[in-house]
Each structure stands twice: as structure tokens, then as C-alpha cells.
Amino acid sequence: MLFHLFHELLGRLGAPCMLRNVVSIAIVLLATLAVVAQPQHDKEFWRTILKQHAVVPEHESADALAHELSATLASPDPEVRDDLAYSILATWIHRGNVLSKPTLIALTDEWRANLKSGLGEIGTDSVLKRSFSALCLSEIARHEAKAPFMGAERYHSLVAEATSYLRQERDLRGYDAKLHWIHATAHTADLLAALADSPQLSKEETDSILRAIQSRLSTATEVFTQGEQDRLAIAVVSVIRRKDFDASTFASWLARLQDEDRDVWTATTPESLARYQNHNYLLEALTVRILMEPDSPRMADYRQQVVKLLRTR
């Protein structure tokens, strides 16, 4: 929009005075950018919305407010990022009739792009944007599973991006005394679980989700301590309870987990022990999560496979 404004102003000025005025125009445009970049509402405004059950205030645009909130997902202030921005956005997405389809699509694409912002950094605040974008995308994916709006191409791209992000994220912090929840692994697990609830998920994509979870556990250099294994177990259950899921794939996946730990007691390293413990905690969480599903011969068989494996470890 600002580019078109700049072009229009130059056209009106004409060539003779263009150079003479270009600095003045640039100053005006930079000032405009600064105003646009500034938050339009303070914490108290958002606190009031939350207290009033996230009802959109009179004379305010939910779409505009959603974009404003989205810009704060990278905030190091946990109240702004989590208690306010995420909570309000999640509520509006869940209600289904608050945000317009163009806004839902724009937010989806913005958060997809955010998954790559600063990817590879460890111990910096850049992870907040990635992690909370993944969490917001989980709400988008839940909405998509019930009322599709994004189109097949965007959905399948999101599955690929989510599995790739789970594999590539290197900042594995769960909770920080200052930043509070970071939780990139758990948030991405939530996203994968929601994506797996969609009828659009392909057989190849169910495989890619299970492999991404395996990769995350295999490459983590530390034992997760903030419930990440349980959130990953929920994602696994979302995959294996699908009617179109190939049951033999689950047995193969379990065998791969077991094979990765075959040398843990003969070639012990801190990394191999972390992988082994992460696998154990995942399998234990998976046993409980399968038990919580409605009874069926299929789910009972999955549970027996997991318990049988646990008894060998």
C-alpha cells in the first residue's frame, strides 16, 4: 500500500520537482511506517476483551484486531504473547464466525512464514514467534478439520511445513523463568495432532508425521521435562485412530524406535540416554492416551503392541 502511495505522489509531483521533493516524501512515508508499526491498543484494552469473554468491542474490527494481536506473538512479555494474544486469537478462531475467511487465510500464511523466522537459533527470543505461530496454527487446523476454508494446496503445504519445522527446530526450551512458556515441541505436536484430524490428510502424510515425531525424539540432545512426550503421544494417537490408517505402519514405527536404542547400554552417551528416555516417556504416555480412546479391537491391539515393547526396555 505504501509503495503505491509513494508511486502516486511521485506521479503527481512530476519529473522537474521529483528530486527536489524525494527526501521530504521519504520522511513522510517513514513516519507513516512508524505509526503503523506502533501497537494501537495497550494491555488494558486486551485485558478488558478477555474479561468480557473475548467479545469484539463495539466499533472495532475483529479482522484488524486479529492482525494487531498476531504481531505480538513474538513478544517476550508472556502476558502479551500467551495470556492475551494467543488466548483471544484462539477463541475467535474457535468460534468460527468472528474472523472473515480472507483474514483466516492471511493469518494462516503469516504464521506459516513465521515458522522459518530465525530457525536454527538457540537461546534467543526468535523462537517465540515460531513456537506461538505453530500454536495458533493448531487452532487454525482444528477449525479447518471442522469447516474447511484454506483449500487443499494450502493444507498440504502446511502439513509439510509443520513436519519440517518439528524436525528442524533447535531451541527445545519448555519453560523459562522470565519468558515463561516457550514450548516449541509441544506446540508443534498440537499442530500435527490437529492436522491429523482432517479428512484431507493423505497416507503419505500420516507416515511423514510419525517419522517427524521419531526424528524429533532421536535428535533431541536432552530429555524433555515439560510434557512434550505426552503432547507428541497425542499427535500419534490422532494419526493411528484414523479409519484409513494402515495398522502395519504403526508396528514398523515402533520397531524403528526400538532399533534406535539397540546400543544404548553398550555404547552409552548422554545423547543416547536422552533419546532412550524420551522414547520411554513417549511410549508410556502413548499407552495412557490409547487407553483413553473409545474401546475398539484396533486400539486394543495398538495398546498391546506398546505395552509389549515397554516390557522389553
Give the arrangement of secondary structure elements:
Layout: H1 2-13, H2 15-37, H3 43-51, H4 62-70, H5 78-95, H6 101-114, H7 126-146, H8 152-168, E1 175-176, E2 180-181, H9 184-196, H10 203-219, H11 228-240, H12 247-260, H13 270-291, H14 297-310
Antiparallel strand pairs: 1-2
Tell me what you see in this structure.
By secondary structure, this protein is an all-alpha fold. It has a domain at 1-38. Helix content is 69%, strand content 1%. The chain has 14 helices and two strands, in the order ααααααααββαααααα. The protein has helices at 2-13, 15-37, 43-51, 62-70, 78-95, 101-114, 126-146, 152-168, 184-196, 203-219, 228-240, 247-260, 270-291, 297-310; strands at residues 175-176, 180-181. Strands 1-2 form a two-stranded antiparallel ribbon. β1 and β2 (180-181) form a beta hairpin. α9 (184-196) packs antiparallel against α10 (203-219) and α10 (203-219) packs parallel to α12 (247-260). The longest helix is centred in the first third of the chain and has 23 residues, at 15-37. The protein is globular and about 65 Å long. Mean pLDDT is 90; it is low at 1-38.
